[in-house]
Amino acid sequence: MDIKDIFANISAEEIAQLTRDLVRFDTTNPPGNERQAIEFVAEILKPFGFELRFIEHDPQRSTLLARLKGKGERGALVLNGHVDVVPVGSGGWDYPPFEGIIENGKVWGRGSADMKGGLAAMIVAAKAIAQSKIPLKGDLLLTATAGEEVNMMGARSLAELPEAKHWQAVIISEPTSNRLGLAERGVFWPEITTYGKTAHGSTPELGINAVMMMVKVLTEFEKLEIPFQPHPVLGNLTRSVNTIQGGVKVNVIPDQCAVMVDMRTLPGQDHSALLQQLNDFLSGLEREIPNLKASIRLTYDLPPAETSQEAAPVQQFLSAAKKACGIEIPIVKIPFATEAAIFVPALSVPTLILGPGDAALAHQPNEFIEIAAMEKAAQIYAAAAVEMLS
Ligand SMILES: [Zn+2]
After folding, report:
1. How far, in Å, from the CA of 175 to the mean position of ligand 1?
2. Which domains, ranges and CATH numbers included, belong to the chain?
3. Which residues contact residue 88 at a Cβ distance below 8 angstroms, ignoring those fewer than 6 apart?
């Protein structure tokens, strides 16, 4: 079968309309309410021979696993995208965020780039493979997940399926301007709290000031060296102290102060060792600084993830894009966390991140996606599926 026959079933107009339809489901997370959008995706695939399986999270939320059966001679290829979106924020929208207006070759709206456009491209690519009736050596799975923007519960539940251990590769259509991401940094958000003793503001000598204790902790934290290997694509470990809360009133000595730190870790860094280092750092300060009492609590923990460029599915993906679409796909840094942070550590499955749309537009007002980029992405997914499964 010629790949051009499969491309003939990939229509830019259909992808654009599907993106518009998906944007019209308000899947703002929290709370998510992804069920209707998930059922809509299932209904599109059903007539083309996909077996449908729903993972129920709660009455309003589910994740879809749609399967086009192969012969079982190769592991499944998973095309994966999330349907939830982040809140629209307080303003700055020239286009209504949940209408999916199509104008100037773009679809506008919340979630168009992150990542209903990428999901629409995957749905149309999967449908085109089914329509071609090309024999598949392994299953083609399309997974549409709930909950990515908050706790990745959809991806977590997929990774727990026994069959997931046999997947040969996962492609995630997060927006990368159709470039390939293979590595992403981990997310490590500790909260550090200092404890003092309250007293009247007129007699500070009777209290212990938790805010001033935090000043001492942060001064030392700035100097703390955290070991890491710089990564050729991802660069360095980063850390920033981004919120601080303490005190109740100007005339009361504060007995508590808390900061939240955003750290982005690199492949090879172990989060439990990092947490241990921070615990040891605080215990050391408690011994050095009189009256200091502090604690640390991890509020969010997503490990770094990396797939080798030498992995067979990556090589097949790159050569399929070159042969079928005539493009050399560059390898780029993924600046945010994706569901690869669940799939890679749990399954060691090669995970490729490539999708239409500009990552800089994600989570912004006036989010849009270019229709031509979605069509190109759909062709890349279809070509990769043929290469990996036939
Ligand atoms: Zn996303």
Report:
1. 7
2. 3-184+304-389 (3.40.630.10), 186-302 (3.30.70.360)
3. 28, 97, 110, 365
